[in-house]
Amino acid sequence: MRYELDVNGHRQAVDAPTDMPLLWVLRDLLGLTGTKYGCGVAQCGACTILLDGQPVRSCQFPMEQYAGQKVATVEGLSPDRSHVLQQAWIAEQVPQCGYCQSGMLMAAAALLREIPKPTDAQIGAAMTNLCRCGTLPRVRRAIRRAAGMVAG
Amino acid sequence: MSFPLSRRSLFTAAGAGLTLGLLPGGLMAVAAPGQGATVHNWLHVGPDGTITLFSNAQEMGQGGFSGVAQLLANELCVPWDRVAVKTAPLIDAMGMAGGRSHWTGGSSSIRSQWDKLRYAGAAAREMLVTAGARMLGVSVAECRAVNGHIEHRSDGRRVAYGAVADMASRLPVPANPVPLARTDWSLVGQPLLRKDIAEKVDGSAIYATDVRLPGLLSATVMQCPVFGGRLVSVDPSPAMSVPGVRRVVPVMSVSIPIPGSEQPLIVNDAVAVIADHWWAARQGLMALSPVWDFQGKDGLDTDGMIAAIQARLNDVGSIRKAAQEDEGVIRTRHATAMAGAARTVRCDYHVPALAHAQMEPMSAVADLSAGKAVAWTGSQFATSVRHILCGLTGLAEDKVTVHTLPSGGGFGRRYLNDYVAYACFLSKQAGAPVKLIYSREEDLAQGRYRPATACRLTAGLDQNGLPVAIHTHTAPASGQVWIAIAPPGTEAQPDHQPSYYLPAPLATMAEAGLPIPNGPWRAPGSTQGAFFFECFVDEMAQAAGQDPVTYRRRLLASNPRALRVLEAAVTASDWGRDLPPGTGRGIAIWNSFQSIAAQVVQVQVAQNRVRVEKVWCAFDCGTIVNPDSVRAQGEGSILMALSASLAEKVLLESGAVSSRNFDQYTLLRMEQMPVIEVILVESPDAPVGGAGEPMTPPLPPALANAIFAATGRRLRSLPLSDHGLTVA
Ligand code: FES
Ligand code: FES
């Protein structure tokens, strides 16, 4: 099937099987490999993107559900790592292996859009992504930094 | 491409400037081919002042890639922001430590290369200073290296490294370069920004799963779910009707000859599907119904596995001893001391099999089409990747190419190259470049697991409750797990073992030999050993009627370095302060990778709900290169060990793993996370220790000891979920 998508502000046309999850459309058909496959069953969050501003685990839903919507991936956060979250992520030296971090950043972006100054409990409730390297303390610190809640 | 050993072509490759390598036992510039020189590490100073350091540590999150460069840059006296770091070429000369092989693991990138990197940097610095002195028209003694420049000590005139790099490259390499005195270090000990972080915040870091090539096909694989089973047949047609599927490849009785080894690499029987993209490959594979012959190995389940290792607790087992020691003497000494004990304490423990569950499933890209032999992997063992390419193609080592990429987590799993073998085999079969990605289900079902292990510990105590003899008996499902205690008078620090020197130790092991593949899992052996032994120390303390810290202080009286680490954790946590009801603290200490870690865990328990409130971790790795990286490894190690302790357990049903995704193999989430405080202790005169693993082992026993303190319940097995405890 041929679909129209808005990815990071660019209109794209793509030929994809109707049951193909958006994750694989992004990675294998559009070459946007920043979004990662971790589990395929909505458990890990590595594939998190924003769909019309809402965080979505892109491994989950088939392509046909996404047609015509606005998709934002980690590549679209900024052209030069200048997004406040990316800056906070570098300042706190958050990533270890880095594989989960695209999903972390997108989940964090959705959280701050919803709650500009989240409490730790709100951060914990929103950030259900898995990180095997154990960067979660720094993820939380970086979100607080990006929200202007700790000295930079 | 593999780097040619010719100095001239290196200059062509890297631009003019100074390029240097290190020989064991001395230094020299890069030798021409055929001279048999072993060049050990590289750096390049360009005429424009750019500095490129080549790191031979594969980056899997631990920070070693950048850490190796930080150590080199310190010795070179260059500003960190001017340094670029690249992956070292796969040449013998740049193998890990003193060897020719390229691998990353054992928390060894820094500790095993400490001298090599410092001498290489010092030699280059001395050559640059000599050249700079000539340019300034002064003697070498009047100059020093500062921040990428050669500076006249008294008049302050400077020349940049780049300006003299060419001249320096023509100088003889100093025979005895002198590394900087500790007081002159500018970069070691600083929390510098890691070189690999920025590309991980915008999706631009390329892992094996992300490699793109013209004509690249995607593949996925299903091995026989029962370990050791064989493929009988598979009907490809259901997969072939999935749009995008190119072919179904049965993998039957494949073995790959490994150059220089008698043993070929045996590839497990499997079915693979190759397609235009991964989703089609996955859909195609799921449509298949392969016929397997389980070879009668489909009887084992989780409880059977635990029962099998527990049964081995009654075996005599084999003894751990040095070659010159006599088994009879050791056993007699132990039995005699035990017979004289005022009382004995005995406890049985067990822990489950664990999966690595690194976030990037096993993945590799290979191109064996049209006479090519190229692989892109995040393997921890690049030399073995090369062997696989050579074995499958018959090509010589210098005709195959290995690209080492960052990986989405290793923890020991990527030391085993099963997935690389499939990628290479499939590319050869398809005659096209192939990217293989295991599904998460395949990744968790075909792990190289931390073996489930049982343990029986027996101590004889004197009237004061102190041990006079200890017997450790371990029973891993497969592989080797020992607890070998150092007796008093041992000169070396204990390593991968309890921190104490204890009398009349006896270490035995009885491996159950279950057909479950095992492999190194962050701090191999130590995550089991520390849980058993440090829980047992608390039982001995209780038998002696003493506080766990007081008791450990007495056991550590003859190990002042470890005692200092224990005290750092005790002080930071203010051990002994009054705690609210339902709250308890536990402590544990362990030596591994030439480092020492002591942890205090504080928990609150109410109605079987455990809240892990805080973890204090005191850590001594001798000398610290990057304190922020070490703290990050502390946080990561603690959370991985905590996650494992809460609910991780590989489940087996009918000989196959049934915990095949994160809904059944559950990892720690942010809401369950404690506050973590890492306290860094330095021992400048001690050998440099590792940092990526040694903060893992103390957590599980400190946690179990804390739960005892809070509830009076002794947990002699993990995970907590087996005891009806949930963690909020
Ligand atoms: S890959 Fe989508 S949640 Fe894990
Ligand atoms: S940084 Fe490695 S999984 Fe999160």
TrEMBL record, chain A:
<dbReference type="Pfam" id="PF01799">
    <property type="entry name" value="Fer2_2"/>
</dbReference>
<dbReference type="GO" id="GO:0016491">
    <property type="term" value="F:oxidoreductase activity"/>
</dbReference>
<dbReference type="InterPro" id="IPR036884">
    <property type="entry name" value="2Fe-2S-bd_dom_sf"/>
</dbReference>
<dbReference type="InterPro" id="IPR002888">
    <property type="entry name" value="2Fe-2S-bd"/>
</dbReference>
<dbReference type="InterPro" id="IPR051452">
    <property type="entry name" value="Diverse_Oxidoreductases"/>
</dbReference>
<keyword id="KW-0479">Metal-binding</keyword>
<dbReference type="InterPro" id="IPR006058">
    <property type="entry name" value="2Fe2S_fd_BS"/>
</dbReference>
<dbReference type="Pfam" id="PF00111">
    <property type="entry name" value="Fer2"/>
</dbReference>
<dbReference type="InterPro" id="IPR036010">
    <property type="entry name" value="2Fe-2S_ferredoxin-like_sf"/>
</dbReference>
<dbReference type="InterPro" id="IPR001041">
    <property type="entry name" value="2Fe-2S_ferredoxin-type"/>
</dbReference>
<feature type="domain" description="2Fe-2S ferredoxin-type">
    <location>
        <begin position="1"/>
        <end position="77"/>
    </location>
</feature>
<dbReference type="InterPro" id="IPR012675">
    <property type="entry name" value="Beta-grasp_dom_sf"/>
</dbReference>
<dbReference type="GO" id="GO:0051537">
    <property type="term" value="F:2 iron, 2 sulfur cluster binding"/>
</dbReference>
<keyword id="KW-0408">Iron</keyword>
<dbReference type="GO" id="GO:0046872">
    <property type="term" value="F:metal ion binding"/>
</dbReference>
<keyword id="KW-0001">2Fe-2S</keyword>
<protein>
    <submittedName>
        <fullName>(2Fe-2S)-binding protein</fullName>
    </submittedName>
</protein>
<keyword id="KW-0560">Oxidoreductase</keyword>
<keyword id="KW-0411">Iron-sulfur</keyword>
Automatic annotation (TrEMBL), chain B:
<dbReference type="InterPro" id="IPR000674">
    <property type="entry name" value="Ald_Oxase/Xan_DH_a/b"/>
</dbReference>
<dbReference type="GO" id="GO:0016491">
    <property type="term" value="F:oxidoreductase activity"/>
</dbReference>
<dbReference type="Pfam" id="PF20256">
    <property type="entry name" value="MoCoBD_2"/>
</dbReference>
<dbReference type="InterPro" id="IPR046867">
    <property type="entry name" value="AldOxase/xan_DH_MoCoBD2"/>
</dbReference>
<feature type="domain" description="Aldehyde oxidase/xanthine dehydrogenase a/b hammerhead">
    <location>
        <begin position="202"/>
        <end position="296"/>
    </location>
</feature>
<protein>
    <recommendedName>
        <fullName>Aldehyde oxidase/xanthine dehydrogenase a/b hammerhead domain-containing protein</fullName>
    </recommendedName>
</protein>
<dbReference type="InterPro" id="IPR006311">
    <property type="entry name" value="TAT_signal"/>
</dbReference>
<dbReference type="InterPro" id="IPR052516">
    <property type="entry name" value="N-heterocyclic_Hydroxylase"/>
</dbReference>
<dbReference type="InterPro" id="IPR012368">
    <property type="entry name" value="OxRdtase_Mopterin-bd_su_IorB"/>
</dbReference>
<dbReference type="Pfam" id="PF02738">
    <property type="entry name" value="MoCoBD_1"/>
</dbReference>
<dbReference type="InterPro" id="IPR037165">
    <property type="entry name" value="AldOxase/xan_DH_Mopterin-bd_sf"/>
</dbReference>
<dbReference type="InterPro" id="IPR008274">
    <property type="entry name" value="AldOxase/xan_DH_MoCoBD1"/>
</dbReference>
